[in-house]
Specification:
By secondary structure, this protein is α+β, with helices and mostly antiparallel strands. Helix content is about 30%, strand content about 20%. Helix 1 crosses helix 6, helix 3 packs across helix 4 and helix 4 packs antiparallel against helix 5.
């Protein structure tokens, strides 16, 4: 029982689960590399995504001052790997992934990608959220959205993609699908979410549905809809809502006598959570997890509008071109690298 409870608590602490509607991804051209080049008359799109209004809460720790250029450099030519930002062993880098995979289906996307970096010597942690439409070079493949990297191989492909483009090497991952997301919340008898901003959007079976600002009780279905919804907002706003829901899950676990339900919760996790963390990997991290159980002490960073450029691919896809220098500046702050 004790081991099960420790695993559950550790996984919930790690997970930031938000998913998009399921979709199939067509396989690419084997292992060939085809660099995407914009046509000569291609220009940055003005508003392919809805803007986010100012928010009084959930302010990212880092606000880079760099601004997007009018004519972005499009992915083309030969590129080389980015130099590692933290080549030491001080940081434990774990990817927290939310998957849209359904049971029995093959192709899936990781529509939530968060880098959790724990500094083992300073006993600090930071979380960096990557937008799913970030258009990056996938080693051995081509330029594609970052959320398709695992589809082309496994965790190693996604880890190599982040290392190659941004100079940070993740060693571990924890991935959950959205079915488990609902089930976990319902097993906790719902959660109380601190909603920073009123959300009104279409919800199946309800029509226009509004979640008011303030503390709102949510069951699993409502919390999943709240974390996934983006018809009236965008991915950047959805990232904030995902963090609100995760905070509520952790607070619910800490406020209830959840140890009595360890068997039930453990069965849910064992069926729905995928990870390369083993028990010998977790044991040395437990003291850090205990010290960081107060989530207000974790530094939050986001790859937001200032770090990307909206662009439409030659095939018509709306993507986000990374402003590599700006993203690396955020990562340096998150990792405490000079």
């Amino acid at each position: 029982m004790t081991h099960k409870w420790i695993i559950i608590t550790f996984c919930v602490f790690l997970l930031l689960s938000g998913c998009a509607a399921p979709a199939q991804i067509s396989a690419g051209p084997g292992n060939s590399i085809a660099l995407i080049v914009a046509p000569s008359d291609a220009t940055p799109t003005v508003t392919p995504f809805l803007p986010i209004p100012p928010t009084p809460t959930y302010i990212p720790t880092a606000f880079p001052t760099l601004l997007p250029t009018a004519n972005p450099e499009t992915p083309s030519g030969e590129i080389g790997p980015t130099e590692l930002l933290d080549p030491t062993d001080e940081h434990i880098n774990i990817l927290l992934l939310g998957s849209d995979q359904r049971v029995g289906e093959g192709g899936f996307r990781t529509d939530t990608i968060i880098l959790l970096s724990v500094n083992s010597s300073q006993k600090t942690a930071s979380m960096v959220s990557f937008p799913r439409d970030l258009y990056v070079y996938i080693p051995g493949w081509t330029y594609q959205r970052i959320n398709t990297a695992m589809f082309h191989g496994d965790f190693e492909i996604l880890a190599q993609t982040i290392e190659y483009n941004f100079g940070v090497k993740p060693e571990y991952y924890v991935m959950i699908n959205f079915w488990a997301f609902e089930e976990v919340i319902d097993s906790l008898d719902g959660i109380d979410v601190q909603v920073a901003r009123t959300l009104t959007d279409q919800r199946s079976g309800y029509g226009q549905y509004t979640v008011p600002a303030g503390q709102v009780y949510m069951d699993g279905t409502t919390a999943l809809w709240y974390a996934r919804s983006r018809s009236s907002t965008n991915d950047f706003d959805r990232t904030r809502r995902q963090q609100e829901v995760t905070q509520a899950i952790i607070e619910r676990l800490l406020s209830m006598n959840a140890i009595e339900r360890a068997d039930e919760l453990y069965d849910i996790y064992i069926e729905n959570v995928s990870t390369n963390l083993t028990w010998p990997d977790i044991v040395p991290m437990l003291p850090l997890a205990v010290q960081l159980s107060d989530t207000s002490g974790i530094q939050h960073y986001f790859i937001g509008p200032a770090e990307v450029i909206n662009w439409i691919t030659p095939g018509g896809g709306q993507v986000l071109l990374p402003r590599q220098d700006a993203i690396i500046a955020v990562l340096r702050q998150a990792l405490g690298s000079p």
